[in-house]
């Protein structure tokens, strides 16, 4: 649509420039149309409210948003917070203090900002991970989420690579978020 408007505006501008006299009005109309065609059209998917600090979901191509094709693997890695649990591509995983009784309190907008660690089948324990602390729960949407020491695990959409720990000690969606130690406890500070 924009290309068509742009082509039409260019054609009108060229035609007006060659006609003289009335060309000023036609040229101005063509330029107005050209400027309108360059203005971005609102997206149907844009929220109508001002985004909060966490309204930055992982990109659709992000591995933390992808549907799992097999068992999730939880490992440990050294970060600026010390040794923590990590998932896909070495990305830090977090627990949410609002989760109670082995169920997830993080759905919809929360799950976009804090994607759950999903699995197909039993999750696998990597080096430094206690296999007896790994488990799963079934989410409302029918997916299976990985738990550790009965805490549902999540990624943080602002973490872009291995070693990022931007989600630690964040207050969001009515609770606190913390990276997880190999012992299944929350990392402080």
Radius of gyration, whole Å: 25 Å
Helical segment count: 3
Going by helix content, strand content and strand pairing, the class is: alpha+beta
N-end to C-end Cα span: 51 Å
Strand fraction equals 15-25%
Q: Percent of residues in helical segments?
A: 10-25%
Total domain count: 2
Biggest sheet, open or closed, and with what strands and sense? 4 strands, antiparallel
Care to describe what's here?
This protein has 189 residues and is of the alpha+beta class. It has two domains: 37 residues, no CATH class; 107 residues, no CATH class. It is 21% helix and 21% strand. The chain contains three helices and ten strands; from the N terminus they run H-H-E-E-E-H-E-E-E-E-E-E-E. The strands form three sheets. Strands 4, 6, 7 and 8 form a four-stranded antiparallel beta sheet that branches. The chain has a three-stranded mixed beta sheet with strand order 2-1-5, with no helix packed on it. The longest helix has 18 residues. The chain is globular and about 35 Å long.
């Amino acid at each position: 649509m924009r290309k068509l408007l742009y082509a039409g505006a260019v054609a009108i501008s060229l035609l007006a420039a060659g006609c003289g006299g009335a060309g000023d009005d036609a040229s101005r109309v063509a330029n107005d149309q050209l400027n309108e065609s360059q203005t971005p059209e609102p997206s149907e998917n844009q929220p109508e409210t001002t985004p909060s600090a966490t309204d930055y979901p992982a990109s659709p191509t992000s591995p933390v948003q992808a549907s799992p094709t097999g068992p999730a693997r939880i490992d440990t890695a050294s970060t600026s917070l010390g040794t923590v649990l990590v998932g896909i591509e070495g990305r830090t995983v977090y627990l949410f203090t609002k989760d109670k009784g082995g169920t997830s309190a993080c759905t919809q907008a929360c799950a976009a900002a804090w994607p759950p660690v999903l699995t197909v089948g039993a999750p696998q324990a990597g080096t430094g991970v206690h296999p007896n602390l790994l488990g799963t729960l079934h989410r409302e949407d029918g997916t299976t989420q990985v738990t550790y020491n009965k805490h549902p695990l999540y990624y943080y959409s602002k973490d872009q690579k291995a070693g990022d720990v931007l989600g630690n000690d964040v207050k969001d969606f009515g609770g606190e978020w913390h990276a997880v130690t190999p012992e299944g406890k929350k990392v402080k500070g």
